What we know:
Elements: E1 2-5, E2 19-22, H1 30-39, E3 54-60, H2 66-83, E4 87-93, H3 99-112, E5 121-126, H4 136-143, E6 147-151, E7 162-166, E8 169-173, H5 185-195, H6 201-205
Parallel strand pairs: 3-4, 3-5, 5-8
Antiparallel strand pairs: 1-2, 6-7, 7-8
Helix pairs in contact: 3-4
Amino acid sequence: MTLASLQNHATVERKAIVATIKVIPFALPAADVASAVGIADTPIIWLDPLPVRRVALVVSGTPAARERIVGDFSAPIRSRLEALGSQLGDVHYVPLEDEQGELALARLLAQFAQPDANCDLVILAGDTAIMDRHDIAPRAIERAGGQIVCFGAPVDPGNLLLIAKLNGLPILGAPGCVRSRKLNVVDWVLPRLLVGDQLTRADIASLGVGGLLEDVRERPMPRLG
């Protein structure tokens, strides 16, 4: 008796086949069938519904290129969110060039983390990606009272990924590859954040096997529903 399933944490559309159970020989002893049924008494496969989430986007870059930067990031991020049944809410711009920008981002994140803010996820993106653990954006998250869960991912494209949280509010620091429609690390972590998974450093580290996506072709955004 065999059980074949999609990869763990796969995103599926309605009525999709997620697993098959097949008996290879023409018949099985009753004891083997009873043993298999006993294993199935505990959850083996389950689906988490993708709820409608409201997501805030904070874009950074040089003031002179503000409109271009906002357009470069908001369109592909909106497409990804809508394909997963969620919505892109407000798009904010913060020029993260100095301590004033760090303070402005910290204050904005603190507002998003308020219970009445109607915000379920914050995505940070910029013309210059977060370069290290002590860059301006991570410092702003900690300044607001948040914690950095993980910086860096063994996925290419997508090495400069940041995962953080602030009073239960997940924060995704997106690498520059989020501007592309090609499969990248954001497509792997975004659905899990939207369903409420509390991603850990170990979760991100586990993406390394199969994480070389450099030659994956661009594909149209699927729409669930």
